Amino acid sequence: MHHDQEDHDLGFHHDLPRLVSRRQLLAMFGGVGAVALSGLPASALECIALPWETAGPYPADGSNVRSGQVVNALTEEGIIRTDLRPSFGTLTPVADGAQLDLELTLVNADGCTPLANHAIYIWHCDTTGNYSLYDTPDANYLRGVGIADADGKVRFTTIFPGCYDGRWPHIHFEIFQSAESAVAGDASLLTAQIALPEDVSADVYAADSRYSNGTRNLSRISIARDMVFRDNTDAELAQQTLAVTGDAASALSGTVTIPVDLTAAKPAFRSAPPAGNPPATPQN
């Protein structure tokens, strides 16, 4: 389909004071329903530990290269942020698309207790399936790190991701014990992906011309045939599917609870393809 890579300096520590504020809202499971957190302990929620998934070829987390340079957005000043639509650091392009306000709840799968102060790095494609720093090397938008508050909540504002040929619409993420662990290159506690709901995806792609290939590509794939999600159980898929409300013409809101099995061993995945030699079928 496309794709390549790049490098950066230090700045994560400058962003550490910018922690997400504590609030109590709703946590929803895609396809399962909603559970109000107010007055309920986190352990009252259903917790299905999410399976490890590949990070794909375009994580920009220091694990691969583009044109001979390591690509690592995690060490760049400005990476800890709430609004993922603008580029940060020395780059200036801004991503265009239907606004999506995310609330992610990070919990320990053992007891559903909040993973306070843990860091989550998320990244996803633009409206037509391109990734910043790889397909669009002069931009680093649609990437960012958030720090969980006391309730395990992290909030971002981004755009609704597009659908490119060969993959179900999705958002990548990596969870780290702390912001310091992420910038130091420590291994993630979980690398996985959030699935987007089919009905909302279809509506957004059909109504918004910025998603010019979304309807066509979504019609060619099902979550049951997706190379990443097809091995997951129905319970896992329900847990990792974003619950979306709102209107794409104004703003969509998405919520999901991410239970992490802190004892799970990282499986072996195929490494990302060499720089300059993207796969015929997208791996991310």
UniProtKB/TrEMBL annotation:
**Which GO molecular-function terms appear in the entry?**
ferric iron binding; oxidoreductase activity, acting on single donors with incorporation of molecular oxygen, incorporation of two atoms of oxygen
Domain of life of the organism in this record?
A: Bacteria
Intradiol ring-cleavage dioxygenases domain mapped to chain residues: 97-167
Please give the Pfam families that the UniProt record associates with this protein. Answer: Dioxygenase_C (PF00775)
Classification via InterPro entries = Intradiol_dOase_C (IPR000627), Intradiol_dOase_core (IPR015889), TAT_signal (IPR006311)
Q: Which PANTHER family match?
A: INTRADIOL RING-CLEAVAGE DIOXYGENASES DOMAIN-CONTAINING PROTEIN-RELATED (PTHR34315:SF1), PTHR34315
Q: What is this protein called?
A: Intradiol ring-cleavage dioxygenases domain-containing protein
Source organism per entry reads Devosia soli
